[in-house]
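1st attempt posting a full record on here, be nice pls
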Amino acid sequence: MKRREFITLLGGAAAAWPLAARAQQGERGGPTPSPQGAAVHFVGLNDGAKLPPRVTIRFGLRDMGVAPAGLERDNSGHHHLLIDTELPPLDKPIPNDFNHLHFGAGQTEAEVTLKPGPHTLQLLFGDKDHVPHNPPVMSPRIRVVVAEAEPLKTTVPPTRKFKRIRRGRR
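the predicted structure (as tokens):
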């Protein structure tokens, strides 16, 4: 089947973009299958966004379920956030380090702290063993810019001098 026919069958380029991108790149994942149409995305975070150094990143998922690592369920897995790195080998477990954050408890958001400057972010969904599905379920890589942290406002209000008022004499 030609790529154009494939996209038409899925009902449009927007719906088929994650699948078409994977098929075009010829990427294969591990042994766990992913359903057709499955996709991950950032919720409320777009390419080119400007972020504070400490930010909550939310993960979106379509046509699959979230399950903790180690739990075997059909059409499920857990999120991995890739920061400033290329995709790891898609047929092996995703590394676990600063650039490859694992959310094996089934989290759908994370608070991360990034240094000021440009960064890339990408989501990669993994199976119970942290291996990407086949075909891989991943978001496009986006670029964000982290702004310098604003200095804390440490102005102290002026001290007040209170006058002691005496009422009556004792």
